[in-house]
Amino acid sequence: MKTPLNEALRAHVDSQQLSKIQLQELLDLQQRHHPADRRMMHHGWFVAVASSLLIAVVVGLMQMSPVGFQQDLVAEIAAEVVDNHLHMNPLEIEGNELAGIRAYFDRLDFQPIESRYLADIGLDLLGGRYCSLQSVTAAQLRFKSLGSDKLHTLYQVGYDPAVFKTLPNLDEGDQPISVFNKGVKVTIWVEKGILLALTGAPANYSGE
Amino acid sequence: MFNEAELNRLYRYAFSLTNAEASAYDLLQSALEKYLRLSVTKLSGDGQLRYLRTMIRNRFIDQYRKEHRHPHQEFESVEALISIDMPSPEDVLIESEQIVDILASLSASERELLNLWALEEYTAKEIAEQLDCPRGTVLSWIHRLRRKIRNMSMVKASGEDY
Predict the structure, then answer these.
(1) Does A182 lie in the same domain as A134?
(2) Residue A140's domain spans which residues?
(3) Are B121 and A16 inside 8 Å of each other by CB?
(4) Which of A21, A164, A182, B105 is a good FRET partner for A150, with 20 to 30 A between their CA atoms?
(5) How far is CA A177 from CA A192, B12, B147, in A?
(6) Using an 8 Å Cβ cutoff, are A52 and A104 in contact?
(7) Mind listing the pLDDT tens digit for each residue in A68-118?
């Protein structure tokens, strides 16, 4: 007697349940992460205001330096990115749409992405070329600011934690890191499994 | 806070990726810990489920990328089929006991797709949003997956191994 795939799958998967112990562990885990809620219920606004101030201080400190991430690695990436950016080597392919030039980068083991964090900045794509970052083959995309001639370089390379260790991951709620090298600001983040590094992000750039 | 039903739903999703109970629990537990540290509270109930599911998926990819290239990469070279319709999982008939062997022979990305398509019953558009790829590509994957499962079913019926 044959059964529709979804029914057979559901019957099988329904047998996959967390054990009572596992369920209790996960429920306890959630409970442990909400002590602030319980304190606020008991102590009212004082705790709420104090917590907000503490968060503001921590956030402020995190914006001043890449606390919690690999500072040495961030500095190395920034130095390499800025060197390449300042050289302004000729583009190997020109185009205003990433979709149009993506096929050129067929030697990469990833596809260059449209970063959601660049969507609101207002950058015009000019083209791209191959390069490397920390000895890993990367895509180097060049942009021009809308309304000015300022050039920006965006590096994209497959994010391998073994090479790049822990860097802020937008998909996990982290914010990008910005550092300066030779007077050039470099903003670094991981998104959709790709490590991105942008030179000269504007001051109102998200995460700053 | 996720209730028991939601935690089990997430566990089954993690299981669809790992096809191993212990790994599925570890994956869910570590993703939940990270999620709780982020305090994602602005999303609706279903939005929070989707957010955590994405975190589970990203974590799975991070953990396994070094050993196995991200399984979806092999799909990305496939040309998207834009004009085909979403097939129904009900149209694929198998022997009930075959499901264990079928799941064991699918890749992690195929099991994930099967979970989203046949179990969660998301539309191609919704799956495309979650996997961040074009709808046509999802349809292409599903047609391939359906064909693969049908072939397995027919091979099994003829008494051969997969």
Answers:
(1) yes
(2) 68-199
(3) no
(4) A164
(5) 17, 35, 45
(6) no
(7) 556 777 888 888 888 888 888 888 888 888 888 888 888 888 889 988 878
For A98, the 3-state DSSP assignment is helix
From B85's Cα to the closest Cα of chain A, the distance in A is: 18
- Please indicate whether, in this complex, the C-beta atoms of B7 and A23 are within 8 angstroms of each other: yes
CB nearest A11 (choices: B73, B90, B96): B96
Q: Is residue A144 within 8 Å of A123, Cβ to Cβ? A: yes
Whether residues A28 and A129 share a domain: the answer is no
Q: What is the pTM of this model?
A: 0.46
Q: How far apart are CA A122 and CA A136, in angstroms?
A: 28
Phi (first) and psi of residue A192, to 5 degrees = 50, 35
How many CB pairs below 8 Å do chains A and B form together? Answer: 111
3-state SS of A2-16 is EEEHHHHHHHHHHCC
How many whole angstroms separate alpha carbon B124 and alpha carbon B134? 9
With CA atoms as reference, the chain A residue closest to B117 would be: A6
Q: Which helix (H) or strand (E) holds A155?
A: strand A151-158
CA dist A117 and A189 (Å) reads: 10
Residue A41, judged by CB atoms within 10 A of its CB (0-12, 13-18, 19+), counts as exposed
Assess contact for A201 and B68: CB atoms under 8 A.
Answer: no
Query: Could you give the CA distance from residue A127 to residue A142 in angstroms, rounded to a whole number?
Result: 6
Contact A112, A118 (CB under 8 A): no
ipTM of the complex: 0.73
Residue A131, domain member (yes or no): yes
Q: Tokens for A113, please give them.
A: 């992405």
**pLDDT, tens only, A148-175:** 778 889 999 988 877 777 788 888 888 8
Do A110 and A30 lie in a common domain? no
Which residue in B99, B162, B112, B102 sits closest to A14, CA to CA?
A: B99
DSSP E strands, B20-121 = 93-95
A149 in helix, strand or coil? coil
The letter for the amino acid at A43 is H
Tokens of B90: 């009900």
Please identify which residue in the block is written with the tokens 């834009």.
B82
